[in-house]
């Protein structure tokens, strides 16, 4: 009994000490989202890729330290514009040996091509919370058009820092050989699935 009372007291103390965070503040209603210029929140934005590894399993890597801007027009989404830059050297995967290999000139050649970028050229709304975004992807020194399927995750005031924030999930597929990355094709799939989990903060 004493142990139970002590545990309850400790839990109550931790609850009182923890910062209060409002829940349910985000909205998916475009009419409630502020228009303007937003910049990437690098601490909460991830760029991921997945390939099929020798036909045995999907294998995913992740890039961090993403930067970029979003000109968001919720009332006229077709007028929105997106530009994102991803430092290739930020690549992370569970195997350091694999990371080193992927950064080498046999694969992504980080030394010669340190960044990849995506710049939108056309935004087509598909319902109130989805859009098809066409843009130019530059990877490994090659620029090709790519289509991303974008879904609004939510928008509102960040309860921690109070900044107006909007988040999207963007998905697309490319052939890496189109960008000159041909090592082990087709044993390791030519098709690469891309995901950008993006958080953007509105500039004052």
Report on this structure.
This protein is mostly beta strands. The chain has one domain: Beta Barrel (Lipocalin), CATH 2.40.128. The protein has two helices and ten strands; from the N terminus they run H-E-E-E-E-E-H-E-E-E-E-E. It has helices at residues 2-17, 96-103; strands at residues 36-40, 46-53, 57-63, 67-72, 81-87, 115-125, 130-139, 142-157, 164-175, 191-202. It has an eight-stranded antiparallel beta barrel with strand order 1-4-5-6-7-8-9-10. It is elongated, with a radius of gyration of 21 Å. The model is unreliable at 1-22 (pLDDT under 50).
Major sheet strand order: 1-4-5-6-7-8-9-10
* Rg from Cα: 21 Å
CATH class bucket: Mainly Beta
Total E-strand runs:
10
Looking at the structure, what is the overall shape? elongated
Determine the fraction of residues in helical runs and give it as a percent range: 10-25%
Q: Strand portion, in percent?
A: over 45%
- Separation, N- and C-terminal Cα atoms: 54 Å
What letter string, H or E per element, gives the SSE order? HEEEEEHEEEEE
Q: Calculate the mean pLDDT score and round it.
A: 90
Class inferred from helices and paired strands: mainly beta
Keywords: Signal
Pfam families: YceI
Domain Lipid/polyisoprenoid-binding YceI-like: 37-201
Protein name: YceI family protein
